[in-house]
Amino acid sequence: MNKHLLVIFPHPDDESFGASGTIAHYRREGIPVTYVCATLGEMGRGMGNPPFANRETLPQIRKKELEEACRVLDIQDLRLLGLRDKTLEFEDLDELADRIGAIIQEIDPHLIMTFYPGYSVHPDHDTCGAAVIRAVEKMPADKRPTVHCVAFSKNCVDELGKADVVRDVSDVEDKKVAAIKAHRSQVEGYRGGLKEKLDNKDPETMRWLLKERFWTYRFDR
User: Fold this and answer.
1) Domain residues of the chain, as ranges?
2) For position 220, what pLDDT does the model report?
3) Measured between alpha carbons, how far is 20 from 212 in angstroms, rounded to an integer?
4) Average confidence (pLDDT) per 10 residues, the chain, 221 residues
5) Distance CA 25, CA 21 (A)
6) Three-class SS of residue 114?
7) Which of 45, 85, 180, 187 is the least crowded, having the fewest Cβ atoms under 10 Å away?
8) DSSP state of 141
């Protein structure tokens, strides 16, 4: 199996907060990365500060922000599923899994990164992760790629144990911070003054961002 990283998240900025350091590591090694983003995050609360977006313009603004984050991270294969933000839980899970499965079959990744279903707080996160897991479950066991999941619910460590993959990404701090800042509409004006903390390299914030945690999904069969 050739090395190819497939990243599947529901919203623009999920990749930057959860996995951009890891993505930067893979790209530095010349390993291709495909990013499948399910929605444009058009129901996001952030509009910039002062506001430069509204509910009508936000989808295209977030699309451009996503493209800029991909440029920063050297992701050359961005795919948009065109689903509606905050409605993934109402999608037919098998149909979504089949769409994802077709991409998996096409690019034959050695590793997939997504959210851990049930441990990722937002219904879109959990549904996206569940669809990825279902798509991989449909594959023969000996053909399945490894799946690394992001989890951050309060009970994730208690119920899943500690993350088995913890990656220090401090050597690509500049890329991670730049990728996060690319999502201006979401970073500015909320998340507890995140932009200012990034600008000032707040120690607690940087410790949180520069250790990326993943749980390897264990399939029952």
Assistant:
1) 5-215
2) 87
3) 9
4) 92 98 98 98 91 95 98 98 98 98 98 98 98 98 97 97 98 98 89 87 95 96 71
5) 6
6) strand
7) 45
8) G
Taking Cα atoms as reference points, which of 121, 122, 12 lies closest to residue 72?
Answer: 12
User: Rounded to a whole number, what is the distance in angstroms from the first to the last CA of the chain?
Assistant: 21
Q: How are beta strands 111-115 and 146-150 bridged, if at all?
A: parallel
Q: Does 3.40.50.10320 match the CATH number of domain 5-215?
A: yes
DSSP letter assigned to residue 84 = P
Could you tell me the two tokens for 33?
Answer: 């990365």
Specify the pLDDT at position 108: 97
- Residue type, position 41, single letter: G
The Cα–Cα gap between 141 and 32 comes to: 24
Contact status, residue 163 vs residue 174, Cβ threshold 8 Å:
no
Q: How far, CA to CA in Å, does 74 sit from each of 3, 78, 98, 117, 173? A: 16, 10, 27, 28, 15
Q: What is the DSSP pairing of strand 111-115 with strand 33-39? A: unpaired
Q: Which residue type is seen at 190?
A: Y
